[in-house]
Amino acid sequence: MNNFEFCNPVKVVFGKETISRLPFLIPEGSRVLMLYGGGSIKKNGIYEQVTAALKAYTLLEFSGIEANPHYETCMQAVELVKKEKVDFLLAVGGGSVIDATKFIASAVYFEGDPWDILAKGAPIKKVMPLGAVLTLAATGSEMNERAVISRVSLQKKLNFSSPLVFPRFAVMDPEVTYSLPAHQVANGVVDSFIHVIEQYLTYPVNAQVQDLFAESLMKVIVSEGLKVLDNPRDYDIRANLMWAATNALNGWIGQGVPQDWSSHRIGYALTAQFGLDHAETLVVILPGVMRYLQKEKQEKILRMGAVVFGITEGSVQERLEKSIEATEGFFRNMGLKTRLSEYGIKESDLDKLVEPITQMGWKLGEHANIDARVAREILSLRL
Ligand code: NZQ
Ligand code: ZN
Question: Which atom of ligand 1 is nearest to the CA of 67?
Answer without folding.
Answer: 26
